[in-house]
Amino acid sequence: MGSKNVEIEVVGVASAMHFLVDALCVCCLYMLLEPLPLTPVVSVIVTYNVLAFLTQPLTGLLADSVRRPHLLLLVSILLLAFAVLLSVIVVMTRAGEMPFFYAVAFLLGLGNSFFHVWGGKQVALKTCNDIRSLGVFVSTGVMGLAVGYVFYSWLLLCLLLLSLNVLALVYVWEEDRRYRWDRRNRYDSGNRYGDEKVFSLPLVLLFVVLLMVAVMLRSLVSECFTSDGVVSGSEMTLLVGCVAMLGKMAGGWLARGLGWVKSLALILLGVLVGWFMRGQGVALALVGLFVVNCSMPITLWLANVVLKGREGLAFGLLAAALIPGYLISQI
Q1: Separation of alpha carbons 244 and 294, rounded Å
Q2: What Å distances lie between residue 67 and 63, 77, 138, CA to CA?
Q3: Per residue in 23-44, pLDDT tens?
Q4: What is the pTM of this model?
Q5: In sequence order, which residues have a C-beta less than 8 Å from that of residue 196 and are 6 or more positions away?
Q6: pLDDT tens digit sequence for 160-204
Q7: Helices 296-306 and 260-276 sit at what angle, rounded to 10 degrees?
Q8: Computed over its alpha carbons, how large is the radius of gyration of the chain?
Q9: Cβ within 8 Å of residue 185, ≥6 positions away
Q10: Which 3-state string (H, E, C) describes 221-240?
């Protein structure tokens, strides 16, 4: 069993599931909340986002400690399935009490959280923290958000849930078969990368804080570019999702070719130019959005290096850092 084939399989399946999970969450929320006034819709969506992102440091710690990591994936699938079932019941019974809507947001948020830390850790381990693979994995979620928002319907929701279940079950079965083959043949599947930890605790804390601040600023700047007159209409929503996805993918390949220091310097220069030229048209706003998203795989790769052996926590901390920028932009 070639390790390269395993890497491609893991990245491909995890990225596809990332698209499905984010699309499912948005599709479910909008199908459920469509008849409600704007104010409760916003409060439920903010509740979902806060739960989905701010719980990831905790679920990340769980991902780092559990001996059977795919249990997190199965828990995620169950939570998402219960959320879809509850939303169907609420709509069919016309139960308009707000606790039901928050319950769906709670289930979706936790399911989303469990999936992200599972996927982030598995991709980092199986690919030896390959920065290109990290970029591919994180990129597909934003396109899932756009597709779920534009095309939300009960039919799409059922197809998303069915596809997610099939992919997850096939992947877990294949991983279990591979694990039994490795043990029988005493083969080391190589879920380690790099040297042992060389950072002292104060340096780890400093690096992590700096990375979280960088992620928070990126979230705020990205929201500013997105709101720069770009997201008016379904076509533009899909275009924004596609541009952000391609930016995250490109960032990994750029860093692999130039090195992360030169890449970050180039990205920072591009963001500054884009920022000072804001308001000059949709095309420039999209270019700015593309460039700022190129930094995402670099920050995740650095977090994995600093928190080696705690990749779930690394992913969760950076995900949680997105929320302050998101909330500031909403206010």
Answers
A1: 8
A2: 9, 19, 24
A3: 999 999 999 988 788 778 888 9
A4: 0.91
A5: 308
A6: 999 999 999 988 888 777 666 555 444 444 455 555 556 788 899
A7: 140
A8: 20
A9: none
A10: HHHHHHCCCCCCCHHHHHHH
